Amino acid sequence: MSRVYDRVAYIGLGLIASSMIHAGRRAGLQGEIVGTARSAETRAIAAEDGLCDVVTETAAEAVKDADLVVLCVPVGAMGAVAEEIGPHLKPGCTVSDVGSVKRAVIEAVKPHLPEGVHFIPAHPLAGTEHSGPRSGFAELFENRYTLIVPEGDTDPQALARLERFWAGMGAHVELMEPEHHDLVLMVTSHAPHLIAYTMVGVADDLRRVTDSEVIKYSAAGFRDFTRIAASDPTMWRDVFLNNREATMEILGRFIEELMRLQRAIRKGDGDLLHEYFTRTRAIRRGIIQAGQDTSAPDFGRGHGQGQSKG
Length: 310
Ligand SMILES: NC(=O)c1ccc[n+]([C@@H]2O[C@H](COP(=O)([O-])OP(=O)(O)OC[C@H]3O[C@@H](n4cnc5c(N)ncnc54)[C@H](O)[C@@H]3O)[C@@H](O)[C@H]2O)c1
Ligand SMILES: O=C(O)C(=O)C[C@]1(C(=O)O)C=C[C@@H](O)C=C1
Prior knowledge:
GO molecular function: NAD+ binding; prephenate dehydrogenase (NAD+) activity; prephenate dehydrogenase (NADP+) activity
Structural class: alpha/beta
CATH topology of the largest domain: Rossmann fold
Organism: Tropicimonas sediminicola
Distance between the termini: 37 Å
Order of helices and strands: EHEHEHEHEHEEEEHEHHHHHHHE
Helix content: 40-55%
InterPro entries: 6-PGluconate_DH-like_C_sf, NAD(P)-bd_dom_sf, PDH_C, PDH_N, Preph/Arog_dehydrog, Prephen_DH
Family: Belongs to the prephenate/arogenate dehydrogenase family.
Bound molecules: nicotinamide-adenine-dinucleotide, prephenic acid
Protein name: prephenate dehydrogenase
CATH class of the largest domain: Alpha Beta
Strand content: 5-15%
Radius of gyration: 21 Å
Mean pLDDT: 91
Number of strands: 11
Strand order of the largest sheet: 3-2-1-4-5-6
Shape: globular
């Protein structure tokens, strides 16, 4: 794979940025790698580990002369970062992001970017519950989708270049409308996180009743929930605050379904439960057949030394 961008600036050096750096470096997609992070500790780690070729103190310095700037901060911080870098961007460069929500990020970032800069939002559908500059690994995006969410007037060459960059990191690239993205991701990613947070919260509330048995006898189902519920609190706070409409829509439906099952259990309606669980089982099998299952025992774990989020 040949070089796609001569100079790439990463703003925010956590799981996603560090994975992009490793994946891009392995495939020779990027020339000089410049990075910056809000905390001095993260910047020091990035310099010490050689994660970036250049580590700058500010985002404004980092984007100077960059051909691609990738915003890798929590969704709620994207607007402030865009405001800071706007006046320092190289004309003709591409600004992208990796935020888990798209419409709110577009609204927050776009007003701060000057004419002549290509803004092309993106979202890799890959992650782990870990965070920080040491949590990334080159394989994170392999065989996973990255959704690119371009506006109608996006320059085709700039778009093709960003697509090549993501494909070079092993991702399957697809294009999607921002509103559609936010609804689909609410179902496939955001709501499951909210449910996991809630379930682990319930277990925690019950701790006094069950002593520490919830932890001791934790079965596979609950363990999977605790992994998801260990994800970064800032990232997920921002996701829900910035995707409120879809959250309300899907949460409403979820509560209705939960009450339907509650009623069936109360009434002893085994047929309804059996039919329901048969339908959901088919969905799981469909995902596996489509090659989308990523729950193999070691997927995304044992990589890097990132902190467990939370
Ligand atoms: N973790 C995932 O599973 C995942 C997957 C896909 C996309 N994303 C998205 O990628 C982005 C980054 O997530 P991550 O998992 O790499 O996070 P992370 O916590 O590992 O890293 C975030 C980085 O942003 C910096 N930061 C935090 N608050 C900031 C602020 N207010 N101003 C400036 N910098 C700030 C942190 O110092 C850190 O360097 C988020 O928008 C998230 O929604 C995450
Ligand atoms: O595997 C995980 O830990 C994740 O939660 C990753 C996950 C997801 O829900 O699949 C989380 C947020 C994203 O924006 C994209 C991917």
